[in-house]
Specification:
By secondary structure, the protein is α+β, with helices and mostly antiparallel strands. Helix content is about 25%, strand content about 30%. A 4-stranded antiparallel sheet has the order 2-1-3-4, covered by helices on one side. Strand 3 and strand 4 form a beta hairpin. It is globular. It starts with 13 loop residues before the first helix and ends with a strand.
Length: about 100
Amino acid sequence: MKLGTFSYLPPMTPQQVRKQVEYILARGWCPAIEHTEAGRATGSYWSMWNLPMFGEQSVDRVLAEAEACRKANPGHVVRLIGYDNVRQTLGTAFTVHHA
């Protein structure tokens, strides 16, 4: 299944995911968490988990929200996006939990 920026690479380790969250925050992008059923993951619509994390600076809080989304939605694919509010576009998107 090919989803998002890193989908052609092997799954990331927790340390690699952490580095990507650090990158998102360092760029000033807004992290947001989305999820969808595993069978619908290639579609264009994903459900937003809570509100985007505007102004968030804590990697641990972003990762905790991704984990909370996974626990609340078992069997779903969870992805993290980084929204670039200057260019008003998606800066990155990658899955953090596969079903």
